[in-house]
Prior knowledge:
Blueprint: E1 9-13, H1 23-38, E2 42-49, H2 59-65, E3 74-78, E4 84-86, H3 89-97, E5 101-105, H4 112-115, E6 120-125, H5 130-136, E7 148-151, E8 170-172, E9 194-199, E10 206-208, E11 211-213, H6 216-220, E12 234-239, H7 245-253, E13 257-259, H8 261-264, H9 268-276, E14 280-283, H10 287-291, H11 299-306, E15 311-314, E16 328-331, H12 334-346, H13 348-363, H14 365-376
Helix pairs in contact: 1-9, 1-14, 11-13
Amino acid sequence: MSPAEGKLRILLSGMVAGDPHQGGATWAVLQYLTGLEELGHEVVLVEPVPVESLDPGGAVATYFEGLPSIEGRAALLGRGTEQTAGTPYADLLAFARSADLLLNVSGMLRDERLLESIPVRAFLDLDPGFNQVWQATGSDMGFDLHTHFVTVGVRIGAEDCPIPTLGRNWIPTLPPVVLARWPAADAAPARDAFTSVGHWRSYGSIEHEGVHYGQRAHALRPLFELPTRTRAGFELALGVHPDEVEDLRALREKGWGLLDPYEVAGTPGDYAAFVRGSKAELCVAKSGYVNSRSGWFSDRSACYLASGRPVVAQDTGFAHSLPVSEGLLGFDGVEEAAAMVEGVEAEPDRHGRAARQLAEEYLDSRKVLQRLLERLA
């Protein structure tokens, strides 16, 4: 495989519709699809889903059919079957047999007929720490089906990063953002608030070798006082279950605005509008990313930066790969968070310009993905 020699055929697998109405999660995969195509490569996307999700008119199939720019080059594949929505299985198989590269988010594609003839099969880790610890503690993440291992946990393998490497050489990469699809916002923000989108809890937490790989809930609780420490407003589009009564009450009492992520960011278009309509992002990471010093940086934050919206982000060690000054500010604890927020409040235009410049220099999909392809060659 040599990207310098011309067009590659790339099979990409990741979640775009299987858990529908998550515009941000969809965009995380579409950045790869669109960015690789922008480089001139031929890409086909396949997402394994339960067979019942293929039902026409169902939530998954309907959401999938409404996604932009994927017609004729994407499929939902019923797990363990040859049933698809979108590209027929026979066409997927023909493409895979001539493909140069597989990019497989979290190893979710396990169909060995599709995988077996692809010479470079890369496990793409967008959830650093969790994927490795699950594998280390007995869950089969499909590592053995792959030849290469890529991660946005750019510090995996560093001496002070406890995430197990499991004997693999992890290729670090930053999250790509397709700048043409994420232009700098040309209007004042619609929301006079720092915002973000995500889940309160994504799945179960896990303890491994003294490190707690926890969720966003665990990282945000120590920040409950933040709205009382600054003049800024905060609006979080978080999927918080109604049973989280005490946390919901504490958030509201301390002045956090809570939005329904399915309403404000339930499609790729709505998600983009929400990001561009925000003053800035307050990025609170899963505590597992923080505790492990993984170097994780959010694909969501990349979208804010590209849109010219500054990011105040919880420190995971990403300063090893990105400049932290204007446009992007890191914090550890509520006092630092308040100080960084106040800094953006004081000079929003300067930080906004710096945010876009940072995205252009470090996160432009043309640069990020070209470097990745060269390392996989």
